[in-house]
Each structure stands twice: as C-alpha cells, then as structure tokens.
Predict the structure.
Amino acid sequence: MKFFTLSSVLLFACFLPLSTNNARTTSVITPFDEYGNICWEDEQARLDNFAIQIQKDPTLVGYIVVYAGRISCLDESKYRGNRARNHVLKRGVDPKRVIFKDGGYRTDIQTVLHLQPKDEPDYEINPGLKKDEVLIKRCFDKVFAKVLCLNKQ
C-alpha cells in the first residue's frame, strides 16, 4: 500500500540539498562585535565577552581590526589595537589566538572584533578611505587614551 503520490515525492525532493559533498560554501562574514569611539570601561566589557568566546572554542582565532577615522592622531589605530589585544591577553587567552590588524581608514574610528576557525584564511580588512583622504594629526597628549565613561557610578 503506497501513501505517497508523485507530487508529494517531488515536493519533498525540493527540500533536499543538491549536493551531498562536504565542500564549504562561502558565507557572509559577520563580526562578533564592532564599536566606535567608546569609553574604556565599555570597551573592556566588550573585549571581556570577546575573550570568553575565544576561550570557549579552541578552534577559533580572534581578530581585532582597528580603523582610524577621517581625522586621526598619528598611530591611533595601532595604540587602540594593541591596548585591546593586551586586555584580551590579560584575560588568559593564548597570544597565538589573538591577532591585531591595522585596518586603515574609515569615516569614523571603528574597532571590529571577529572570530573565525584557525584553518581559514586571514580575516581581510576593508578600509573605506585612502590615505590621501585622511587628515593625520600629531597628538602629543594622546587624546584617544582610555577615555573614562561619564555618568557611570
């Protein structure tokens, strides 16, 4: 006794994968987190969450990519990136699993935290501006250094 009609079998077949091989497909890369010029306490909380995720899965590598803004201080992205990486390392993450990349320039300062498996190619940076579209200032007082959060108790 058959319970399936030809149309029900064809309908079911529409939901089967076309290929049964285990080849990887290209997926959209979504950052774990991204933020702009935020205060140090808020940045630490985001970096703590990032460190926890790296530690949960030993197959992951964490990328910290910092993009300087259209108007930036000399070496600002390097300072911010190294500060963020050092904070993650203080949380006990293996240094080989946290990679800082200077992302170049975007309209506003931006930090992107990205997780990916160790065996995948390096995370690609995507600057939005060319160096000749940017004003690099010499900031003697390190105006970007660990800004404290206002209105926090």
